[in-house]
Design a protein that fits this description.
The protein has about 90 residues and is α+β, with helices and mostly antiparallel strands. It has helices at about 15-25, 40-50, 70-75, 80-85, and strands at about 5-10, 30-35, 55-60, 65. It contains four helices and four strands. The chain has a four-stranded mixed sheet, sandwiched between helices. Strand 3 (about 55-60) and strand 4 (about 65) form a beta hairpin. The protein is globular.
Length: about 90
């Protein structure tokens, strides 16, 4: 079973699209998306929670991964699969 994936995103974010593509290539079928461009109050919550203002901000389970570069780094280091599998 794969871990729950939450991604703060906007409708026009190329890094969000790349993050989603990478996650789908790893077999993630479901990504809970929070569109902070449509729900500006959630942007404030995201910034308080993550300390960052850019999207995407990705959570896998309870772990704050960060943005696309952080997600991609986990993949390059061979650590993404374990995180996605809830390890």
């Amino acid at each position: 079973m794969s871990a729950h994936v939450l991604m703060y995103t906007t409708g026009t974010c190329p890094y969000c699209t790349m993050a989603e593509r990478l996650l789908k290539s790893k077999g993630v079928d479901e990504i809970e998306k929070v569109r902070i461009d449509l729900e500006p109050e959630r942007r404030v919550a995201m910034m308080e929670k993550t300390g960052r203002r850019t999207v995407p901000q990705i959570y896998i389970g309870e772990t704050h991964v960060g943005g696309f570069d952080d997600l991609n780094a986990l993949e390059r280091e061979g650590k993404l699969d374990a995180l996605l599998n809830g390890a």
